[in-house]
Amino acid sequence: MHHSKSLEIYPINTGEADVKKMLDVFWSLSTETGTVTVPLLAFLIKGAGVPILVDTGFSNPERAMEIMRLGPHRTKPEWDLAEQLKKQGLKPEDIQYVILTHLHYEHCGKCDIFPNAKFIIQKAELDEAAAPLAPAALDVGGKALFYDRQDIAIIVGELWDRVVLINGDEEIVPGVKCVLYRNSHTPGSQAVYVETEGGTAILLGDIVRNVHLNIEQQIPPGLYYDLRSMQAALAKLRKDGKFFYPAHDYEVLRKFTG
Ligand SMILES: [Zn+2]
Predict the structure, then answer these.
(1) Which of 120, 186, 213, 235 is the most interior residue, by most CB within 10 Å?
(2) pLDDT by residue (tens digit) across 167-181?
(3) From its phi and psi, is residue 186 left (phi > 0), alpha (psi between -120 and 50) or beta?
């Protein structure tokens, strides 16, 4: 769809975590045994008439470490989501749409600070988040496959009147489109396609962790729901996008900030 406005994307770092490098690459091809420090990114889209936020970070580091057991998580005052919006001239109440790429704990943890936003979520993702098929013996992921029961309770509780469930691909405003990648990183992971001046930019959630490995070389990342679906997703993303924004790669901040 043609539109005259120029859309811009601002990465916002909401925190940091130390995780196994193995998560970047499909296990059988990975020789990585080390740990890597990754950012936990949200994204602000400006120029669409109303400000749009994609993902919201996690609720607090202690809770993430205790429940998810993934390794150290950190926050800093300057990484506070509301603080960073302030630097963009925005208050939480200005945000009209929050698009959630998926409902893992580090992507939807601050939804309750946005009193006026509609929350755009794929129905398949909420279904999975509400009732994940997690083995009770699993040591990581809070026995809920990285969905935080508390975040999901807030979404289906106090925020429910403002939740917009979608089922497939949908344009939210001209130039900003949600694209469902069913059974890729999660059952209802969605990418957000943003028509920028230079071409289509894709906010990937966690479908991709590392652009060089997962997009350019088409090697699946370590965490996927269904391998064939993930492979199909990576092929379509490479074809559709010009600029790629994964949620956990410092390269995004280096490349696309300032
Ligand atoms: Zn995730």
Answers:
(1) 186
(2) 999 999 999 999 999
(3) beta
CA distance 222 to 38: 15
User: For residue 191, which amino acid is it?
Assistant: A
Strands 97-99 and 243-245: unpaired
Residue 190 pLDDT more than 70?
yes
CA of 247 to the centre of ligand 1 (A): 9
Find the 206 Cα to ligand 1 centroid distance in Å: 5
**Per residue in 194-244, pLDDT tens?**
999 999 999 999 999 999 999 999 999 988 999 999 999 999 999 999 999
Query: What pLDDT does 6 receive?
Result: 87
CA of 94 to the centre of ligand 1 (A): 26
β-bridge mates for residue 19, sequence order: 36
The Cα 134–Cα 126 span in angstroms is 15
Whole-number Å distance, alpha carbon 111 to ligand 1 midpoint, is: 16
Give the whole-angstrom CA distance, residue 114 versus residue 98.
9
- Exposure pattern of 174-197 as b/e (b: 16+ CB <10 Å)? ebbbbbbbbbbbbbbbbbbbbbbe
Which residues are CB-contacts of 133 (< 8 A; sequence separation ≥ 6)? 145
CA 113/CA 93 separation, integer angstroms: 8
Smallest CA-to-CA distance from 78 within 9, 11, 13 is with: 13
State residue 134's pLDDT score: 80
If you measure from the C-alpha of residue 84 to the centroid of ligand 1, how many angstroms do you get, rounded to a whole number?
22
